[in-house]
Amino acid sequence: MADGAVIESGEYGRVALRGKTRHVEQIARVEVEADPNDPDRQVKKTTIRLKPTTTLTLLGADGTTVEMEGDEALLGFITANKRALADYLNARFQPMYRFDLDAIPSGAQRFSHWLDSIRLNGVHRLYAAQKHVVAAITRGLQDRDSILLVGQMGVGKTAIGGTAAVAMASQIAAAIQTSMRPEQVVLIVAPPHLIEKWKREVLSVAPNAAIERLDRHEDVRHFMDRAEALPAHVPKIGLIKRDLTKLGCAWEPSVVWRTEASPLWHLRQPIPDGYEPHQRIRRARVPTCPHCGQTVMQEKKGVSAPASETWLNGGKRTCAICHTPLWRESRDRGSQPRPGEKYPPKNPRYRLDEYLKRMYPDRVYLLIWDEVHEAQHGDTGNGEAFSRMAGLSKKVLAMTGTPFNGRSSSIFNLEYALNPRVRTRYPWGGGKRLSRKERGSRAFQEVVSENSTQRGRAESRWVEHMGVREQIVEERPSYDRDTGAYTGTSTYERPYQEAPGISPLLVAEVLDHAVFFSLGDLGKALPRYEEIAHPVELDADLYAEYDRTRQRLKDYLIQRRWEGDTTFRGAYLQWAMGWHNAPFRPYEVIHNLKHPITGVKEPYTVARLPSYGEERIFAKEQALIDRVQAELGANRPCVIYFRQTATRDIQPRLETLLRRHVPEARTFILKNTVDAERREAVIAREIAKGANVVLCNPELVKTGLDLVRRVRA
């Protein structure tokens, strides 16, 4: 944005700026290890990184130039001259929202007065920063179709999104009235355990809102019919659990199987050796298209033959002649015809996103998608549902606290749905385009163009421009195949793989349709937050056992890898991360080996570890007991997260130890058997009963749940 700027810098005087971002090849690391086949020789692995680097060129008034390259130099210049850069940008770029609440055109009352009247849950006012974020979103959606709200955990994204939805759906924002028809609705898609929270907070913003949960297709139809009858100023908001948008029925091949007979030799020819006369006719089941009747062919290694059932089950195939889909939606047990009945009792499950796209393609004005980072991959059910529903909505508000995971590819699917520039520069195509069907003609349509296989290439080009890539160049000794003599060194270049890191270009690409909001923006005296790693030394006997077993499993893993079997890595990793958490129980490290002939997997015990005593308190457990005792002694309730909560559940043992050795502990285990929608209410009920230590898997409460409780002194 500041390319070409002329500013007064502190060190170089009056200069003109010119920046250029290019990918620079760097050697990230070099690893040298002994060759397993020849200990006297070495294998060298060089990791080459293609990292985006920005070069900043300063042109002085006397014609001299200064070049700065690298992140540190660029950051230092920006920090030293941030005031001059800010003045330049403010003078040449007009912000869409200038922190003036009353600049938002509103209806009966001023926008600021309406925001001041809101009481979340009937008690709490909106913070000033939250009001400005609501106004910025409302103003941004007047000119743009999509906004990405990146809000830190705890800033109140639910309240902000709900308030913005009501502002647009109830004609508070007057500029929206001309673009939103009275029968159009707002849909909010959220994780299952946050649906009731959304409903509670939206109703506190607009008590007269027509807000309904849409759990079935009948609910959607009833909600849409009701929306047509309600006045335009009544907010019409539908709540959808995220998982319902992607849940549909399975699919199965849809072909007609016919038995075809073919002679192996002519009737008058002599019988070939090894055959009997009755074996002359060979019968085989071949699939045919249910529309045109042609045999479905499969090409394998350059040979075309009738398709196998395995090939048909491997993907959604189409007929090569008439292009009819050779698959259909399969019915579950509940939708199968009952014995003796001709018709099924109900239809197969239909995805809500596809139902909305087919039945109500123009009725969704605003789509709010909460925790949108869980839809960041386009080849998942969440990603497909988000892309489909964003396509049928006129406006989209996507909310998250973590827009990407450090790799540029993780935000590609979101940007493709939210940013029209990305769709233009990195198109991945669509379905097949067929020739025009002539009226009265019986000829089948032909494929004019097909560009539906470009998704991976588009994402690769995005990573090439916006991300960091690495390549491993391996130099290893080579030997003669016949004599085994050393012949020199061979170089193998592996393909480029994406690595953590992004380009500055990605920030510029996202900036114009994103709102960033952090806890610091609230301007409140918040308590200090720290993440402290507390190391605990293993017991001496456990450490010795761990070291011995680790070496044994590592040797076995290397041996299996040399034999071409890498299936033991999972068992090795799970043992390495989990055994020291539960040494009180015996442990067997089992590898399911596949039989080389039959292919049947048979369990093979690689190592057995004994129990080190159930009555013993181990060092890690004692450290946890001491920590909980100290926190409860300071009147601070605790939440303890575990990763072993399924077949090797360690929560009951830790709960027993805490109750036995910490008298103040009132423990409660939140299990995955509690429905996601009930977790918030269950936690609140247990805390009301006196629970001050909650034990659970972090996956159960990782998004949106309020675990902060006021403690009475």
Shape: globular
Q: What class, by secondary structure content? A: alpha/beta
How many individual helices? 20
The percentage of residues in β strands lies in: 25-35%
Number of strands: 27
Mean pLDDT, all residues: 87
* Measured distance between first and last alpha carbons: 52 Å
Task: Give Rg in angstroms.
Answer: 32 Å
Uncertain runs: none
Helix content: 25-40%
**Largest pleated sheet:** 7 strands, antiparallel
Notable characteristics:
7-stranded antiparallel beta sheet, alpha/beta, 27 strands, 713 residues, single chain, 7-stranded parallel beta sheet, globular
Gist of the model:
With 713 residues, the chain is an alpha/beta fold. The chain has 20 helices and 27 strands.
List the helices and strands and how they pair.
Blueprint (H helix, E strand, L loop, with lengths): L5 E4 L3 E23 L2 E23 L4 E5 L1 H10 L1 H11 L18 H6 L11 H16 L2 E6 L5 H13 L15 E6 L4 H11 L4 E4 L3 H13 L6 E6 H5 L4 E3 L2 E8 L17 E8 L8 E4 L2 E4 L2 H5 L13 E3 L22 H8 L4 E6 L11 H12 L2 E6 L11 H7 L1 H6 L7 E2 L12 E3 L5 H12 E13 L6 E8 L3 E6 L1 H8 L2 E4 L22 H23 L6 H10 L8 E8 L6 E9 L9 H15 L4 E4 L9 H11 L5 E3 L9 H11 L3 E4 L17
Parallel strand pairs: 5-16, 5-22, 6-8, 6-15, 7-8, 15-16, 25-27, 26-27
Antiparallel strand pairs: 1-2, 2-3, 3-4, 3-19, 9-14, 10-11, 12-13, 17-18, 19-20, 19-21, 23-24
Helix pairs in contact: 4-5, 5-6, 10-11, 11-12
